[in-house]
Hints:
Strand content: 25-35%
Low-confidence stretches: 371-384
Oligomer: single chain
Number of strands: 19
Amino acid sequence: xxxxxxxxxxxxxxxxxxxxxxxxxxxxxxxxxxxxxxxxxxxxxxxxxxxxxxxxxxxxxxxxxxxxxxxxxxxxxxxxxxxxxxxxxxxxxxxxxxxxxxxxxxxxxxxxxxxxxxxxxxxxxxxxxxxxxxxxxxxxxxxxxxxxxxxxxxxxxxxxxxxxxxxxxxxxxxxxxxxxxxxxxxxxxxxxxxxxxxxxxxxxxxxxxxxxxxxxxxxxxxxxxxxxxxxxxxxxxxxxxxxxxxxxxxxxxxxxxxxxxxxxxxxxxxxxxxxxxxxxxxxxxxxxxxxxxxxxxxxxxxxxxxxxxxxxxxxxxxxxxxxxxxxxxxxxxxxxxxxxxxxxxxxxxxxxxxxxxxxxxxxxxxxxxxxxxxxxxxxxxxxx
Length: 384
């Protein structure tokens, strides 16, 4: 079946459908990872986006029940050069095509993804319409142009959990990660905000010795403090961080009362809560091969990234120090405020399937929490 991807600037790419029939509209971005397509599709941070993979062949190891970062794929659509119809892996239970059809995700193959990627790098990420039912180019371009922008959508509200829950996934030996930590003398309590949290973040926090309580994005500071946490985690998630005024105020109320660790969207929310600013990147960072320099040590890590917005380091308040920088475009990749006990990272140290260069950041966070003396239970009144 023929399918079409039409961009809002009028550029059209034709190919063959290998996913579900239908039509989706979203922000079109490219991803430079060679593996991990199942984790990418199931990462809630990609909600509202159509993903173009730059690797020429996708799907050769199929899909399995254990590798998803959430319970379903969240991407609006997938665009590839070639999709392997016959997966070859002992863990595979579905082909990529079967998986996409099962979850009603349209996908397009036989596309010149190099040309599409170069176009997005030149013009920037933009809205697009992917369809197997409407194959009129002008009609699809108009739909893309008239669609809401990603900063006009409540994407976090769609992907966040509805109710609080305790993370209790049994330890799977296949997922046991060696973080270089001794067995904890006691379990600590951590509240994780679900702005689109990935399962592997929760796995690694549990491996750090935390009993993890996951709460919806709308949770208020009073509810968090009532759980008497030793630490708070701000997860990844989709969309424009500046639109999340409620969570920003909540994080602002928690700063100084409990150690906070933010990843990706959580990094941006922590910066905004401290009074910083964010801005939209031209085409974002989406890949598993981005070099990041730790400004404190000079070491360089290869990292997994997925974000369309960035923190303006010049806007961070006094006391907040930029700790990591992208070697691709010199944007802020992390900061720390020691006095406020806030640690925030733009990339993904929990990356699955990898790379794992940034795993030591979990040890660093645990060390920060270990130095926190709860004493009397923290309260909002104590802050004021």
